[in-house]
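Q: Hi! Curious about what Acetyl-coenzyme A carboxylase carboxyl transferase subunit beta looks like structurally. Here's the sequence.
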Amino acid sequence: MAWFKRKEKGITTATEDKMDIPKGLWYKSPTGKIIDADELARNLFVSPEDGFHVRIGSTEYFQILFDNNEFVELDKNMTSKDPLHFVDTKKYADRLKDVMEKTKLKDAVRTGVGKSKGKDLVICCMDFAFIGGSMGAVVGEKIARGIDHAIKNKLPFVMISKSGGARMMEAAYSLMQLAKTSVKLAQLAEAKLPYISLCTDPTTGGTTASYAMLGDINISEPGALIGFAGPRVVRDTTGKDLPEGFQTAEFLLEHGFLDFITPRKELKDKINLYIDLIQNNDIR
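A: Let's find out. The predicted structure is below.
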């Protein structure tokens, strides 16, 4: 027997009176936790429920690391060309135009120079939103110029990697950047200037095979995917099952490929601590 009965039947709600929930009010983490979007932003895009680090871009990292978000961007109008006239599902030239309009970025890396905890440093930060953070000629050139600026002005250099690897649309031009950036980092080392490499989710492919793992200190955010080929490719190639947590930051730390795992809230303090220790300066 029902506990209650509808007093009136046929009640309807006018379509125009229905309230739709605006998009972007909530974020659902991979573990199923629901977080208010504003609260997530205030927490530096780290889930307060489970500590999951949501992917962010150069804009957010610069806000976190530079004092008062004050910095000068180098080579900000440098853009990629299409020397091979590459076409896959669409023309590379059209893809570049579309992604620049969508992301308001010129390419997959930005270089900023400013103060962090009162001292100048150079930060190159990749943006995964720009063709998967892929490394093409412009990415390599901007990183090289960022390192040159650090050497010329005797400043520490920080690289924040977030990339799917080399940009296939530029073929050998892209692969050349592995050697180019590695040579520049060797020059930075010869100048005895600190290089801190921060690997974020994901850091894969050619970036891992070059500058991402060449830091004086290599650090990562918790849970980041870091590797060369993806887990599926490795599994299919070797024919073996992969260990639990394979290619996560925690797995790499355990096997000696990382020096530290640093939560996003601690990045500014820790990066400057490592720089002070390398340069034998007073701890800020």
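A: A fun detail: The two ends are 72 Å apart (CA to CA).
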